Amino acid sequence: MKYEKSGIDGLRESRTWKNYSSELKQQAVFDYLDGKGSLTDICQEFDISSHSVLLKWLKRYTSGEDLKTTSKGYSRMKQGRKTTFEERLEIVNYTIAHEKDYQAAIEKFGVSYQQVYSWVRQFEKNGSQGLVDRRGKGLDSKPNLTEAEELQLKIKQQEARNRYLEMEVGLLVVAC
Fold first, then answer.
1. What average pLDDT score do residues 5-34 get?
2. Are 105 and 116 in contact (CB under 8 A)?
3. Cβ atoms of residues 132 and 143 within 8 Å
4. Which of 65-68's residues contact partners 24+ apart within 8 Å by CB, and which partners?
5. Separation in Å, CA 59 to CA 52, 53, 147
6. Distances in Å between the alpha carbon of 74 and those of 30, 36, 111?
7. Whole-model pTM?
8. Which of 131, 140, 145, 164 is deepest in the core (most CB within 10 A)?
9. Average per-residue pLDDT for the chain
10. Could you give the C-alpha distances from 112 to 44, 49, 87, 131, 144, in angstroms and in order?
11. Tens digits of residue pLDDT in 62-79
């Protein structure tokens, strides 16, 4: 099979991403569903890297999803971006108020999962001081929020949390 086609190189584990067109994916899925071959046969015929790849396509197709052309490094991860201290506070407040729904924060604010996750952890550990970007600065560079600013921040968090809970209760009432 792979050995017959490529010799010893065909048996080596691939460490590169392989691109497949949507047409190739559809034809492979159709041929398999039409009984024109086994998983192994279809993978060989269309030069598909493994059975699991074909099985993913079959699952997507049978669940009604489109079979799109594969792009390098399929990922839902967003790239991080620069943010201000105030933005980080807003993002953390939003995430905590929405029961740590990191994906919602990523989509709403256009930041990466890693950023949101680390900011929430830092905030829970050190309060708002944990969100200060201190790269390249000494220990005495921490800006201190006044007590009034800290209380204002907590009020914002509670208001956001209340809005979320009111929405959740509203959905439960509608569902009943």
1. 75
2. yes
3. yes
4. 66/22, 67/22, 67/25, 67/26, 67/29, 68/22
5. 10, 10, 55
6. 23, 29, 18
7. 0.41
8. 131
9. 80
10. 38, 30, 13, 15, 27
11. 888 788 776 554 445 567
